Predict the 3D structure of the following.
Amino acid sequence: MNLSSQKFNPDRVIIVGSYQKNQPKSDFDELLEETKLLAKTANLIVVEVFTQGLDKYKSDTYVGKGKLEEISTYCKNSNIYTLLFVDNLTPGQARLITQATEANVVDRTELILSIFAMHARTSIAKMQVELAQLEYSYSKLRNLWQHFSRIEGGIGTRGPGEHQLEIDRRLVQKRISLLKRKVEDVKKTTHEQRKNRENFFKVTLVGYTNSGKSTLFNTLTQSDIYVADKLFATLDSKSKLLFNKAGKVILTDTVGFIRNLPTILISSFYSTLTDVVDADLLLHVIDVSASGMERRIDEVNKVIKDIEAQNIPMLMIFNKVDKAKGLASKFLFKKLSLTYDNSLFISALEKRNINAINEEIERLLLNNEREKKIEIPIKMKSLISFLDKKYGTDKKLYLNEKMSYEYTLNISDSDFLEIKKQVDKYHELQYINS
Ligand code: GDP
Ligand code: MG
């Protein structure tokens, strides 16, 4: 027997999942695959997987008693102390499973939160993850506290452990409110920074995690940010200025979306979400080779709707076409292009069809209407009457010294360039005649 492999190693874990027999097994299989990928991302080694089909959801212990004993014995024999659950557990379930197995119980949200904690880059992201972790464990602890006060202290008496629990609870609460204040402060400053970006056309990459956003970001910007076949390789958003033929673009890479992303995280990932809400264009990146692709698309669209970003123009970028071969893929692409109006088929890795994205950004940039200011000499009578007719007479301000009107107009870049050309020409003629 190889004893060294039996030694205690905190990174060795077991995955546990149960599903209801009357529901499609494929959903569960997908969830299980995702959990494995999450475990890999958290640098954990999955030693064994225990699954169980149930007739009815087990609200007390999540899996059956027999299964729990089996898991418990396996843990003891192989020196494993951490159980990873594919689903979220209620505080009650977590407590009973811990009692039965004496193992450390980690549910889906806790696993995702720990990955976010590992990868948080900026100080605001670090604070937000800690906050989310505290709030999540606080809700679990609260249940535990209630449990203890029930068993240890009857009415009017104090249980022995209760005093310590009370101190813990206050400390956690104190830390939570401190973090909340700090996060608010940082939000205010980032809001100022964001304002400075307002003159740029903002393009933001969204999409399910692992779909290739960071790879596409690198391809479009030729930069080298971390790309990995793991979930959540990037946490905070990352932006870069791009020069397009039509103007300046700020491209932003964001954290991936994942099914059932803990709501506690959605509210905390402020920076990523504001990048999405503030965008002029969203590039929704989709892995065409992934199973359950359509559901992932819906999942992402749901989040986009939740944060009220559904009216921002969106391009569907079907990525990894290099992986999809054969006739079936051809039909799939055909179907997708019929289903989604604004779709492009690319390979971010092999740099295929990247120009199509650039062209589309260029086109939208030129048609993008934004507020712009332009000075028009009062002598350009026909242009002035044209603008007044088109935009109304209240858009101009008379500048005495310059003998000009300053117009503030909501117009596209191409219209703006057209007007500017005429004004430049006028000045040129003035110069020649003087
Ligand atoms: P993100 O989570 O959406 O940012 O995804 P990443 O950009 O980190 O990519 C996830 C994995 O998919 C990496 O292993 C990439 O190399 C791979 N990948 C990205 N784009 C393509 C592509 O066009 N073709 C193939 N075959 N793999 C890709
Ligand atoms: Mg990424």
Notes: Confidence is low (pLDDT under 50) at residues 1-5, 150-158. Residues 162-196 form the longest helix (35 residues). The pocket of magnesium ion (ligand 2) is lined by residues 213-214, 233-234, 256 (CB under 6 Å). The two ends are 99 Å apart (CA to CA).
